[in-house]
Amino acid sequence: MNTGNFKNSFLKLERAEEILVEIEAKMKTDPPYLYVLETDASTHQRATLAKKNSDSLDRLVIRCGELFHNLRSA
Q: Which of 22, 41, 45, 48 has its CA 20 to 30 A from that of 5?
């Protein structure tokens, strides 16, 4: 099978896979959302909230854009 005509496509798919691995690692080390358990001292009610980590979320969005660009152009 002659893959010479599709070399760029294979390279873009390979790069997309690398970016996906980077995204998965980043999600574990610096998640875009942190979950916090808050307790109301007067009522003793608890609530679980998601707090946005804006810097991490912004970087994640950019990496996802790069991933989709490579997949689309492959």
A: 22
**DSSP letter for each residue of 9-39:** HHHHHHHHHHHHHHHHHHHHHS-SEEEEEEE
- C-alpha 36/C-alpha 8 separation (Å) is 45
The pLDDT tens digits for 17-63 are 999 999 999 999 999 999 999 999 999 999 999 999 999 999 999 99
* Domain residue ranges of the chain, discontinuous segments joined by +: 4-73
* Separation of alpha carbons 49 and 34, rounded Å: 8
Tokens representing 33? 């959302």
DSSP 42: T
CA–CA gap between residue 7 and residue 74 (Å, rounded):
10
